[in-house]
Structures are given as C-alpha cells and as structure tokens.
Amino acid sequence: MLRLVSTASRPSSAGRLGKTAVPPKGRRAFASTSAKHADISLTVDGKEVTVPQGSALIQACEAAGATIPRFCYHDRLAIAGNCRMCLVEVERSPKPVASCAMPAMPGSKVWTNTPLVHEAREGVMEFLLANHPLDCPICDQGGECDLQDQSMRYGSDRSRFHEITGKRAVEDKNLGPLVKTSMNRCIQCTRCVRFANEVAGVEDLGTTGRGNDMQIGMYVEKTMNSELSGNVVDLCPVGALTSKPYAFHARPWELKNTESIDVTDAVGSNIRVDSRGVRVMRVQPRTNDDVNEEWISDKARYAYDGLTFQRLTAPLIKQGDRFVAATWEEALSAIADGLAKTGAQGDEIQAIAGHLADTESLVALKDLINCLGSDNLATDQLGGTAPPVHGVDVRSNYLFNPTIPGIEQADAILLVGTNPRHEAAVLNSRIRKSWLHTTLEVGFIGERVDTAYGYDYLGQDIKAVQEFVAGKGEFAAKFKAAKKPLIIIGSAISEHPDGASVYNQLASYVQTHKNKLLTPEWNGFSVLQRAASRSAAYDIGFVSSAKAAKTTPKFIYLLNADEVDPKSISKDAFVVYQGHHGDLGAQLADVCLPGAAYTEKSTTWVNTEGRAQLGSAAVPPPGASRDDWKIIRALSEVLNVQLPYEDVLALRDRMWEISPTLVRYDAVESTSPDVALAGLKVLVESTKKAAFKGLPFEKPIKNFYMTDPISRASVTMAQCTRAFTGDQESGISDEKGLQAAFA
Amino acid sequence: MTTIPSRLARPTQLSASITDARKRSIQLYRDWYRSAPEIVQLYALNVSPAYVRHCIRERFEANRYVTDQRAIDVLLLKWRQEYQETVNCWKQRDHVEGILLAPQHRPQRSFLQKFYEGRDEDAVRPAATGAI
Amino acid sequence: MSLLNAWKQAALTSRSTGLKHLITSTRLVSSESSSTPANKKSGEIVTPEAPRDVLVADVISGAPTELRHRPVRIYQPTRNTMQSGSGKSERWRIDFDILPGGGRWENPLMGWASSADYMQGTRLSFRSKEDAVHFAEKQGWDYYIQQTTVKRIPPKNYAENFLYRPSKLRILRTK
C-alpha cells in the first residue's frame, strides 16, 4: 500500500528527501496519522544517508545529492523500470541495478559514478537514440528535453548507428486539440500511460505490441478526454507529446518565467507563466504539494490565448448604442456624472464582484462603496445579491477546511451538489489518488457525472441528503464508521433554492457527529468554491446586508462580473464595468474601464482553503489598462470620497486590518473546533425555517472549458469544447446572436 | 589644450576616521565651489556660476546622511575623479549639463496624475516618451 | 499594529536600517504627493529624511535612485516540469517586478517589444537565501521573499504495483 507521508520532507541542498524540517509559520503541525517508518541508512558514493524504509534506491541516491538520470521514473507515478537509465552499481551485485525499482536496503553500498555505471548509461543512451528521429530543430521540446540533456551529459560522443533500413517510424495518434503527438520520438517510457491510468482517470492510453514494434496510443481512434490531459506534455521526457496550441511558437530559452497563481478555478494552482515580449506564450505548473502537486487543469494551461482576444484596452463610454473610446479623465468624470444623474443614495449603489476579481480591488471597492454610504455588495452568482446562505462570519462555514493535502487523510467523502472534476480538477485528482491507494469510499449526491473514481450514488435532491443524515443507506453506515469522514458541499448548493435546507441538514449532522467530524486534527465539513475570488470576497465581507439586498440598485459597479443575469439590471440603472475582456458585463455597461488580467497584475488570490497566495505580473497590461485597485482609488478621488491608500503597501496594510490571513501568504489558518462549532450553530439557526422544494441539484458548470471571460475568448478552449463536449456550435458566431456594441 | 594626466589627481586614500572623512569632503566641496566660474567659462555654459554651485550643493546634500565610512570614501573618490575630469576639460558640455547640472528632483505628482499618465513616475525615468 | 509598522520595528533593530529609510522615503513621496505638489519651490534643495544609517551600495553604485522604489522578489525558481533535472532550482533568484506602464510595449515599427525598464532582463542568482537578502538590503531594494514550495515525495517501491487488496479492484495495472 502506498504510504503517504504527510510530515513534510523538505528539499534541502543535500537532496530531495532530507531530514524533516520545521513547518513554516502559520501552519500548525498536526500529528500525522500515517504509519511511522523506520529509517534505514546506506552508503551512496561514500556518503552515509538515512531514508525512510520502503524508499527506492533512486530516492536514497537523490537524498545523498547524487543526480541519477531517468526517463521513466517519476516521483508521482508508479514505478515502471523500463528505461534502464537509472542504473547504479551496488556492491555484491553481478549486474548494475535499476535504482528506481530496487528498494533501498540498509547497509548497502551504492556507487553512481563508476566506469560500469558510465558505460551502462552510455549504452542505454545509444539504444534510445538508435530509433529516435533527428527532429531536434523542429521539435518543441528542444532546449528542455531530457533526452538532449542526458545524452550530452551521459551519452557517448559518437554514434554507431549504420542501419541501412533506417529508423523506426510510428504513426501519429490524434489525442485531441491539446496534445500534439509525434510518436516517432516516443521512447516508450510509459509515463503518459501511467499518468492517464492513475492520476487522470482516463484509462485509455496503453501500449500495443512489444519489442521494437511497441506503440503508445489509444488503440482505437479516441481523444484524450480528460481535464488533466495537458500534464502528459510535461511528463513526456521527449518531444513525442507536445502542446498543440504552443507548437512551433517559442523556444524555452527566450521565455521569461514568472511564478504566479492560476485563477481559472478556486484551487489556486501555482503556475509559472512563460512570456516573451508582451505576450504570454504558455503556462506551466509549479510544484506545490500543498495545493496542486505538479498538475494543472487544461483550462489553466491553455486558456492563455484568450488573453490576446476581446481585450478592453481603452476606457469606453456608451453613446447611443455604440461604445466610444475615451480618455481616463473623461471616463471617470462620466461615471461621476452618471452617479449624480441617477441620484442613487445609500443602498441604491451596488457593486457586484465577479470570479476573477483580485483581493486588492475587492477591498478597495468595498471601501469605496461603504464610503458612498452603501452596504449593497453582491457576487455574480445566482442569488448573489442576497447574503449567502452559509454566512460569512465564521471562516469554516465557507472554506475547504481539511485543506487540500488533508483530503488524503479522509476515508469517506460525501460530495453534495458538486462535480469536483470540473470545478477543481486538481483536487479531484487527489481524491482519485486517495481512492486508488486507500480504502476510500465516496458518496455522491447530485447530477450524475463521471468523476474519475467510483462512488455510491445516493440521489439528486434534498431527499437524498435527508436520508443520508438520517443514517439510511449503506453509504451512510460506511460514513459513520469512518475515522475521518469528509463532507464536501459544492458552491452550487448556495445558489440552489434548497440550499438553505441542505446546509441545515448537513450542519446538524456535523454537530451530532462532532467527535469524528470536528476534532482538533480534523475538520470534515467543507465547502468547495469554484470562483477564484469567492473566498477572498467572503473573507473581507463582500456581501450585502438583508436590508440592502431588497433595494433596487440605480448605480451598479461590475468588477469583472460576467455571470450576472442581464434581466436583473434595470433599464435606467447606470452600470459601470471594470474588467479586462469584452464579455457580457461590458455589453451591459454604460462605461467600461479596462483593468488588468491575472497575468498582468501582482495581486493576492485566496483559494478555496483560505490560503492567500501572491500572484505576479508577467506581462504589462495592454493599451491604456491599469491595475484594478488603482482604478477604484482614482475613481474614489474623482467622486470626492478619496480612499486613504496610494500604493499597494498601504492597501495591503488595510487588508491586514480587515483580515491578517489575506497577507499571510502560502499558509492556511485553520479554525479551531470550538469556533467551527459556533459557526455551525449559527448556520443551523439561520437556516432553521428554510423550506425546500425538492428540485434536483444540477451541476453548475455546463462546459468545463468556458467558465470565465478569458477561457470564453480563447480559441483553444473553443476547439476543446467542440472536441470534448460534442458541442459543434460553440465558437462559431452567427449573425442572429448579440453583437458586442464596440466602436 | 592638453593637460597632463595627473593634473588635479589625488591618490586613493582611505579616511582614517569619520572626522577625517568629514574634513576631506569639506575640502572637496571647497574645490568644487571655487571651480564653479571656471566650469562655466570652460564649457561655455548658459547658466550662472551660482546655479552650478546650487547643483553642487544639491549633490552633496543628497549624501549628507551617509555614515558608512567606506561609502564616504568611495563617494569622495568618485567625485574627486569627476572634479578632475571636469576642471581639466576632459568632459564635454553635454556631460556637464547632463550629469552635474541635471535636475535632481522631479515635481511631486499626485496619485491621480500618475494614474492618468499610466506610469509610476517615481519608479521610472523614461528615456523616451514611449507608447501608451 | 499595522503590518508596515511591524516591519519598521524589525528594520530598526536590524543593521539594514536603510529599509526604514526606504519605507520613509516611499511613504514620504506618496503621502506628500497628494497634499502639496505645488508648495515646493523649484530652487529649493530637498534633503531626504534623516535615517539612522544609509546602506552602502545604493549610494555609491551609481544606480538610478528610481530603483529604490521598485520592489524585488527573492525566490527559488521552480523546477521546469518538462524536465527531470532540478539543477536550477537550488539557487535563489532576485527578480524585479514589472514596471507599470513602462515594462514592455509593442514597438510600432516592427512589433517587437520595447521597454523603458532597464532591469527587465536582469535576474541575479545566489547560492542561498541569506546571500540574496544581504544583496537586496545592500542595494536598498524592498524585497519580498517567496516561500519555497512544499515538496512531499513519499517513499516509493516497485512492489506496490503488485500488492494484493482484498476489496474490489480499482485500477487495472496494464502498464
């Protein structure tokens, strides 16, 4: 059984698996429940090293600081042992030993530098290169290719390849619009096969044939229909699987790498944005075992080309039915005039925050709206104008409390009204990992979907929740018997008419079973957000009071809000849209203010666990766009309610005043069980009288590839929609549809 | 006109103490101050010697609070070199105007002015006006 | 206590009180700018706020003083996920944040990227975090240290591929 070591083994300069280090500030070190290993010690290259028992020899060598070349071994996949590049010499062994497959034995002596090892590596390299085409000039992997690097370092300098028949040729497989295959270059390491099988859950990739004729493919004509399919591009050590949208666009040495945070979903995956000049060329994942391991979803990876289309680059003022470009002075004074003309007072001034609003601008906007005398703040979801069902007073009511790495400790998970495969793809892969390697049981309430693991289907509406809470059914019994059960409520539940009763039922269930669900080490009640800005909005209190929710707004400020219902905005209201794409929100607006997209500003994003992370700007915003919080600050000055901060440090001071978690980066502040219980009590009290209609829970994301303005503007995402959801109409505009009224 | 390379040259010297450094900087200031009319005449500048003295004073004031002796020594060295180059007429007029006489402090701008301009003028002094 | 106040406290006690100087200077610029832009007479010589101790290198390096207003990020670059080698990720890097408005723009002549930012291509590498921090303090730059990303690789062994589990099979290992 794969043991998941949860006490941090931090990388040190000595190697990957060093001694355990002190956990960083802000994170309490809980006692680990995984089994303790005895440590064994062995000698690598004369150096004594101690590793947990059950480690592979390659891990021991890495811990000693020796770099072992490998093609098929990957830290997060099962061991295959078929490339033979990791051969090392072990004492008293007749042959060199594949260090990835050999477990580290205590007291053994290993050498990674002897002539035998060198010859072994040269030999393996020679065999790999024998059938490898001379594609380096046209291969996308050039410059970041494992084969290139390892042949330069460990291979021989001359070739002995004199085959008259030439090299083997293999047909290219069509894996979809995202992964470009060039199977001539494949070295059959089977990393992609193992990834698809274990992590992605689409068990379609496999090997056909054997020996020289072995091919990797689907065997049938099939696309790789997984939301994590882009990760095989990273895994493939050669250029067999490359990124189709990025094909032939750039070389890795001309790219500038900026480490940032992804905002296409609420997981807050760590990414590295590679840019050249003013354009983002690609998005790569960053390793962070606390959030996204090493994977990112396809939307995070490939939606970047939407950053170049449909951008708002100049302030726009609506005149008649057209938008006219204006200067910033004109636009801001037009907003001031519009506000005065509508005569909006107090709660008639409303602000709606969208999915991609960053924390700094949310804070600035809330301050501005409050200074104007209003309490009417909304989020752009269904029913977003009313205060949310779960309340925002206690953090544990709306966050993913067990934290993302904590999912692996759960042994029973109940998913209510959520499709984690689409809402948080990388989180879903963690659930799958746990499901594969442990005896995890998953129960599902909601619209039936194919998550990448098996689940017990309990129903689609509140009746299923009630039955579960009452203890009826086999899964409820399993849940009760679990040591660390976990309830994941989807964000769609708060938008559902029955949401209040669902929360009531589940919160009372957690209260009754608090000895298992709410202990100091484990909080099993969690809400999975799907919008990157939602946790931050709730953290700062970007919600309206009940009184404010009832007033009809006359002045509406949309901050990246593109999921609003156009019918909810009255005809004579003055609408201002601040965002970066000309999507729905811009069409509804009277004044459009161009802001910066997530790759163009250094702002804070709070993910669904409540972890604040700092993104970074990779490219400057186009045209006359400005940073979002600066726009709000300038507007406040024009409206004579000048906000007190002028630079981002002062704004972050303000954020610290509101909630210190917003500026404590990369750490999760967990809620104590007492506070969590108090929060649940409030939740139960406030939803006591909620009536339910018994409507079925529907999945909130109809099309995974188009959920925010950036992905909707992206050509790659349109191709994916067409390929993977069978929707042939998407991406093709017809004349009958709404035309954006831009000048 | 030619000058010998060692005219007005001083060997590199480390100050013995902070008072020694202070003495040396005052000596340097005196030399600069007294050379102001000569600089104006040498490079045919359009400004008065008083303005040149004002600029010299500005540069000295900018470093008033340096207390690290090593930094003071380096500053003295560099500005002594500048003095030599300027008074020996080894520079040209543009050098003098651009380095010595360039205005040190730009006008303070309000947040709104910086916002409309688009650039954070505190963080960049653009060489050209550039695009938007 | 405000975050920046806490920072100032820390700066007072450390040797690099030039940070305080920076903080006060940036504070000075930003708070003054709104109130009295017109009060300064053009001929008036403005001395900077008197800090305790000015750092060594930023005064004598000849670097433009505008550089002191720009924050810098100290981090360990992540391993390139396309490759297995982790050589570059052991070093620490100093990277400048992009300049708002002056970072890069498209040149109208050829469409290439022009820049007003002379630090946009500069990436300094250091062997350790302390070296990087020392350098940034010496130069008088505001810095933000990005935490190293957490890596937890469990011990792996080949026998897991063949482990018997009595429950229903959840994955067919076909390689």
Automatic annotation (TrEMBL), chain A:
Give me the Gene Ontology terms describing cellular component. membrane
Q: What cofactors are annotated for this protein?
A: [2Fe-2S] cluster; [4Fe-4S] cluster
Composition bias of kind Polar residues appears in: 1-12
Q: Where does the record place the 4Fe-4S Mo/W bis-MGD-type domain?
A: 255-311
Q: Could you confirm whether the keyword Metal-binding appears in this record?
A: yes
Under InterPro entries, the record lists: 2Fe-2S_ferredoxin-like_sf, 2Fe-2S_ferredoxin-type, Mopterin_OxRdtase, Mopterin_OxRdtase_4Fe-4S_dom, NADH_UbQ_OxRdtase_75kDa_su_CS, NADH_UbQ_OxRdtase_ferredoxin, NADH_UbQ_OxRdtase_Gsu, NADH_UbQ_OxRdtase_Gsu_4Fe4S-bd
Q: Which residues form the 2Fe-2S ferredoxin-type domain?
A: 38-116
Q: Where is this region: Disordered?
A: 1-26
Q: Which UniProt keywords apply?
A: 4Fe-4S, Iron, Iron-sulfur, Metal-binding, NAD, Translocase
Which Gene Ontology terms cover its molecular function? Answer: 4 iron, 4 sulfur cluster binding; metal ion binding; NADH dehydrogenase (ubiquinone) activity; oxidoreductase activity, acting on NAD(P)H
* Gene Ontology biological process terms from the UniProt entry: ATP synthesis coupled electron transport
Record keyword Iron-sulfur present? yes
According to the entry, every stretch annotated as the 4Fe-4S His(Cys)3-ligated-type domain falls at 116-155
- Cite the NCBIfam families for this sequence: NuoG
The Swiss-Prot or TrEMBL record describes its family as follows: Belongs to the complex I 75 kDa subunit family.
Q: What is this protein called?
A: NADH-ubiquinone oxidoreductase 78 kDa subunit, mitochondrial
Q: Lineage of the source organism?
A: Eukaryota, Fungi, Dikarya, Basidiomycota, Agaricomycotina
TrEMBL record, chain B:
A Gene Ontology term for the protein's cellular component: mitochondrial inner membrane
> Which keywords does this chain's UniProt record carry?
Electron transport, Membrane, Mitochondrion, Mitochondrion inner membrane, Respiratory chain, Transport
Q: Name one Pfam family in it.
A: Complex1_LYR
Nucleus keyword on record: no
Would the keyword Membrane turn up in this protein's UniProt record? yes
Q: Which InterPro entries match?
A: Complex1_LYR_dom, Complex1_LYR_NDUFA6_LYRM6, NADH_Ub_cplx-1_asu_su-6
Report membrane topology: Peripheral membrane protein
Subcellular compartments: Mitochondrion inner membrane
The residue ranges of the Complex 1 LYR protein domain are: 26-83
The record's Gene Ontology biological-process terms are: response to oxidative stress
Which residue spans traverse the membrane? none
Family membership noted in the UniProt record: Belongs to the complex I LYR family.
* PANTHER family tied to this protein: NADH DEHYDROGENASE [UBIQUINONE] 1 ALPHA SUBCOMPLEX SUBUNIT 6, NADH-UBIQUINONE OXIDOREDUCTASE B14 SUBUNIT
Q: What is this protein called?
A: Complex 1 LYR protein domain-containing protein
Q: Tell me what organism the protein belongs to.
A: Amanita muscaria (strain Koide BX008)
UniProtKB/TrEMBL annotation, chain C:
Q: Where in the cell is it found?
A: Mitochondrion inner membrane
| Region named Disordered | 28-47
The signal peptide stretch is none
| Keyword annotations from UniProtKB, A to Z | Electron transport, Membrane, Mitochondrion, Mitochondrion inner membrane, Respiratory chain, Transit peptide, Transport
GO biological process per UniProt: electron transport chain
Topology relative to the membrane: Peripheral membrane protein
Q: Which GO terms describe its cellular component?
A: mitochondrial inner membrane
Q: Predominant location of this chain?
A: mitochondrion
Name the family the entry cites.
Answer: Belongs to the complex I NDUFS4 subunit family.
Function text: Accessory subunit of the mitochondrial membrane respiratory chain NADH dehydrogenase (Complex I), that is believed not to be involved in catalysis. Complex I functions in the transfer of electrons from NADH to the respiratory chain. The immediate electron acceptor for the enzyme is believed to be ubiquinone.
| Name of the protein in question | NADH dehydrogenase [ubiquinone] iron-sulfur protein 4, mitochondrial
Q: Which organism is it from?
A: Amanita muscaria (strain Koide BX008)
